[in-house]
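Reading is simple: the token line describes the chain's fold. The lines below illustrate.

. . .
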Amino acid sequence: MRCGCCTPRLHAQAVRPFVSGNKTDVTDARAIWLAVQQPGTRLVGVKSLAQQATLTLHRQRELLVKVRTMQVHALRGLLYAFGAVFAPGKKALLGEVEVALNALAGKLPQTVVDSLREQVGRIKALSEDIGAIEQRLGLQLREDPDMGRIARMPGVGLLTDLPPVSRTTMKFVESVTDPLQHGWLHLDGDGRDYLS
């Protein structure tokens, strides 16, 4: 860029079909050379620091949600082994777990009950961390006009209580480097034509 030349950046998925043989520098260079010559090859744009920061928050949130889900399932399974049954869902489990632990306190060793209570505490702490990240994402949404325009479309929001397609849409919005190139900033209607 400093020299005045612009090197095209290709996604690895665009290069992979052209790799023949084992992975070496020569086969990689040949595959890149072939892929860049193909018509319609989409180039990868350079993300700004703000876009990278937003995507980092999304990745952190996804990881915390996965860990929290694993903890909830493990807690449910452990308590189920002792005869405690809960309604489906995380909220139902967390609402009824203290009653179940108090009922099981006489049957189980205190060390097990304490460990299960600590696990409930970890689940609640993870929920607080996820909420904090969502607040940071909301702040970025209010500050970025492009993200705000997309968030105003029907069916699209920050993250909470949205269908998976909306989460994907927000990640897409934050990863697009040149919005005018994609044409989604000036869509009429709700943007479903672009998403399909």
User: Anything to note?
Assistant: Residues 47 and 177 are 6 Å apart (CA to CA).
